[in-house]
C-alpha cells in the first residue's frame, strides 16, 4: 500500500471512530493530513465523518487548490491557516464536539487560556488553549485570527464553534483533540466545586519534562 493510500485509510478510520463515539455528528467536523509533496488530503464538504470513502477524500495541492476527489470542506481555510504557521504539523482535526463547544460559549472565560490545568495529560497534550473570537462560518477573518495564534499554539478554541488542533501525526492531533474534549467535560462537571488544579510549579515541571 502506498503512503498516500495508508493515510487515506487512517483518515477514514479516525472519522468513523470519532463518529461512533459521538464526538462528531451530522456533517460537522473535518480532518486533514499533509502529504509528502506538500499538498493535503481533506475531508469533503457535507460528508459524515462516520461514512468517509478513502477514494473520495479531497486532494489539494501545496497552494491549497482542489485537485481531485470530492469538493473539500468549507472549513479548509482553518486547516491551511494552522499549517502555514506550523511547519511541524502533519495533521489537523476540527470538531464541533459538545463539551468543547459548551466551554467556548461560556461568558467570563480567560481568552488567553480557556481551561485550567486540571490534569497532567491536558498540560502535556494541549498546553495553553487560546479562544479565537467569534466570526461567522466561512469568514476569512476567522482564518486570519487562527493564523495569528497558530504559531504559538497547536490547539485553539473557536468561540461558539469548536476546537482546531494540529499534531505532528494524525494520531497526535486526534489524541490532543480527545484530551481537550474530556478536559472540557471535566471542567463543566467541576463547575461550582472547589477545584484543586495543578499549581504553577507543577505545570512548569511538566513543560520542562515533556515540552
Ligand atoms: Zn466548524
Keyword list:
211 residues; 8 strands; 8-stranded mixed sheet; binds zinc ion; alpha+beta
Task: Describe what this molecule looks like in 3D.
The chain has helices spanning 3-20, 76-85, 98-104, 120-125, 140-150, 170-189, 200-210, and strands at residues 30-34, 40-42, 58-60, 66-68, 91-94, 131-132, 155-158, 162-167. With 211 residues, it is α+β, with helices and mostly antiparallel strands. An 8-stranded mixed beta sheet has the order 4-3-2-1-5-8-7-6, sandwiched between helices. A hairpin with a 5-residue loop joins strand 3 (58-60) and strand 4 (66-68). Helix 2 (76-85) runs parallel beside helix 5. The longest helix is centred in the C-terminal third of the chain and has 20 residues, at 170-189. The structure holds zinc ion.
Strand order of the largest sheet: 4-3-2-1-5-8-7-6
User: End-to-end distance, in Å?
Assistant: 34 Å
Shape: globular
The count of helical stretches stands at 7
What percent of the residues sit in helical stretches (DSSP H or I)? 25-40%
- Return the average pLDDT rounded to an integer: 96
How large is the radius of gyration? 17 Å
Poorly predicted ranges (pLDDT <50, ≥5 residues)? none
- What does the main sheet amount to? 8 strands, mixed
Structural class: alpha+beta
Q: How large is the share of residues in beta strands?
A: 5-15%
Could you spell the SSE succession in H and E letters? HEEEEHEHHEHEEHH
- Which small compounds were modeled alongside the protein? zinc ion
Please provide the count of β strands: 8
Amino acid at each position: 500500500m502506498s503512503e498516500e493510500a495508508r493515510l487515506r485509510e487512517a483518515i477514514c478510520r479516525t472519522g468513523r471512530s470519532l463518529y461512533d463515539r459521538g464526538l462528531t455528528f451530522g456533517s460537522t467536523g473535518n480532518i486533514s493530513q499533509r502529504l509528502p509533496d506538500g499538498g493535503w488530503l481533506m475531508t469533503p464538504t457535507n460528508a459524515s465523518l462516520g461514512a468517509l470513502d478513502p477514494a473520495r477524500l479531497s486532494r489539494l495541492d501545496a497552494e491549497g487548490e482542489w485537485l481531485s476527489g470530492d469538493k473539500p470542506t468549507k472549513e479548509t481555510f482553518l486547516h491551511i491557516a494552522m499549517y502555514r504557521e506550523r511547519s511541524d504539523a502533519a495533521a489537523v482535526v476540527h470538531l464541533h464536539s459538545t463539551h468543547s463547544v459548551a466551554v467556548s460559549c461560556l461568558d467570563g472565560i480567560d481568552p488567553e487560556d480557556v481551561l485550567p490545568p486540571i490534569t497532567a495529560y491536558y498540560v502535556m497534550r494541549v498546553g495553553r488553549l487560546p479562544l479565537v473570537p467569534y466570526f461567522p462560518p466561512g469568514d476569512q477573518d476567522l482564518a486570519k485570527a487562527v493564523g495569528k495564534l497558530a504559531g504559538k499554539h497547536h490547539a485553539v478554541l473557536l468561540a461558539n464553534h469548536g476546537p482546531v488542533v494540529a499534531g505532528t501525526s494524525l494520531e497526535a492531533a486526534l489524541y490532543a483533540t480527545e484530551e481537550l474534549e474530556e478536559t472540557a467535560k471535566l471542567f463543566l462537571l467541576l463547575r461550582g466545586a472547589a477545584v484543586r488544579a495543578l499549581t504553577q510549579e507543577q505545570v512548569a515541571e511538566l513543560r520542562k519534562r515533556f515540552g
